[in-house]
Amino acid sequence: MKKEEHYLQVAIHKLLCYNNVFHFSVPNGGKRNLKTALALKQEGELAGVSDMIVLLPNRVVFVEIKNGKIGKQSESQKIFQKAVESLGFEYLIWRDLEDCRKFLEILTNL
């Protein structure tokens, strides 16, 4: 993960925690040796999975973190998004902390 996206994801994680939103990250990617990469693939690791998953009552939201307007989805991320949406789940791309704040504001107004 690029440093900018790392820092953005850390800030988003802190904001979600502060607001008691149950979520977790999906640590796909990063440098791994061949043995570890093979083991993860055998366990079901899937390219393109979103960076975070937010669990709400009767609602699952998959969140991809991208750095501002610069960050672009890979082809595997686009395929994952289509699969998630075809199953009726939400897939969001957050490009800054304000995207997370807007999401939280909508949650509090429900």
Q: Which CATH architecture?
A: 3-Layer(aba) Sandwich
Largest sheet: 4 strands, mixed
Which structural class is indicated by helix and strand composition? alpha+beta
**Count of DSSP helices?**
4
End-to-end separation: 33 Å
| Proportion in helices | 40-55%
Q: pLDDT below 50 for ≥5 consecutive residues: which ranges? A: none
Radius of gyration: 14 Å
Strand tally is 4
Side-by-side strand order of the widest sheet: 1-2-3-4
Shape: globular
SSE series:
HEHEEHEH
Number of domains: 1
Core attributes:
110 residues, Trna Endonuclease, Chain: A, domain 1, four-stranded mixed sheet, globular
Task: Describe the protein's architecture and organization.
- The chain has 110 residues and is of the alpha+beta class.
- It has a single domain, classed as Trna Endonuclease, Chain: A, domain 1 (3-Layer(aba) Sandwich).
- The protein is built from 4 helices and 4 strands; from the N terminus they run αβαββαβα.
- A 4-stranded mixed beta sheet has the order 1-2-3-4.
- A hairpin with a 2-residue loop joins strand 2 and strand 3.
- Helix 1 runs parallel beside helix 4.
- The longest helix is centred in the N-terminal third of the chain and has 16 residues.
- It is globular and about 45 Å long.
- The relative contact order is 0.19.
Write the layout of secondary structure elements.
Blueprint: H1 3-18, E1 23-25, H2 34-43, E2 52-56, E3 59-65, H3 75-86, E4 90-94, H4 97-108
Parallel strand pairs: 3-4
Antiparallel strand pairs: 1-2, 2-3
Quick overview:
By secondary structure, this protein is of the alpha+beta class.
